Prior knowledge:
By secondary structure, this protein is α+β, with helices and mostly antiparallel strands. The protein is 32% helix and 9% strand.
Amino acid sequence: xxxxxxxxxxxxxxxxxxxxxxxxxxxxxxxxxxxxxxxxxxxxxxxxxxxxxxxxxxxxxxxxxxxxxxxxxxxxxxxxxxxxxxxxxxxxxxxxxxxxxxxxxxxxxxxxxxxxx
Length: 117
């Protein structure tokens, strides 16, 4: 049990989500489609700089989702997607806040030993 004078600092509680579960409820509608998409990508592993099928599928999915810009062929098979946001689209201004996300699409040359394959 920790005393009041314990040197261990407890992290503050995270702020409550403003979506209050609504966003997650909407996302669950897409769970079967996203699961199928992930399984398809997993069934077609490609090594680094050889992700032709994977990058094609991801770029197509991003376009279907309405991403503002999809740039392909970055360092051969990479993709850059730009989402400008509603505020920037309204007034034509550059967004004030930016978020960068990065993900690997390549497979590793190894055999999986699990029961999911």
